[in-house]
Design a protein that fits this description.
Elements lengths: L4 E3 L5 H7 L4 E4 L2 E8 L11 H18 L7 E9 L1 H11 L1 H4 L6 E7 L7 E8 L2 H4 L1
Helix pairs in contact: 2-3
């Protein structure tokens, strides 16, 4: 088995190592990004929901950038929301700041009961730029 081609954003590697997962893995022209939450640098949740969503996207964008991607390269997104009936409108008021213009990526939204103290998580699959896709 070949080693995974892992992508680490600057400054958060010990967080990923402590929790035993890779932030993203390159494979066959795609970047598979682990779920990103609105964590502060120490890993604790941002308490305000809007700020938590912004941090989740900032953390996601740092992983994408480390692989030479932007959110425009995202082809598939999965969002996890605790108590979506109460939180969806607040979350979706922030999303356009990061999502960009149509056409949008494919999306799956999942309501969950627990996210380790967070209210929102996003994981994506992105196309790698051509020079990295080989």
């Amino acid at each position: 088995m070949t080693a995974r081609d892992v992508v680490f954003p600057a400054g958060r590697q010990d967080l990923y190592e402590r929790n035993r997962y890779s932030p993203a893995v390159r494979s066959n022209g795609f970047l598979f990004v682990s779920g990103q939450v609105g964590s502060r640098d120490d890993g604790s949740p941002e308490p305000d929901l809007r700020a938590q969503v912004r941090r989740a996207f900032d953390n996601l964008n740092a992983v994408l950038a480390a692989a030479g991607c932007t959110f425009a390269d995202v082809v598939d997104a999965t969002v996890f929301v605790v108590d979506p009936a109460s939180n969806f409108e607040t979350i979706w008021s922030v999303v356009p700041e990061y999502w960009g213009d149509a056409p949008y990526p494919a999306l799956t939204g999942i309501g969950v009961t627990w996210l380790y103290g967070f209210q929102f998580e996003i994981k994506v699959i992105a196309r790698l730029p051509q020079q990295q896709a080989a």
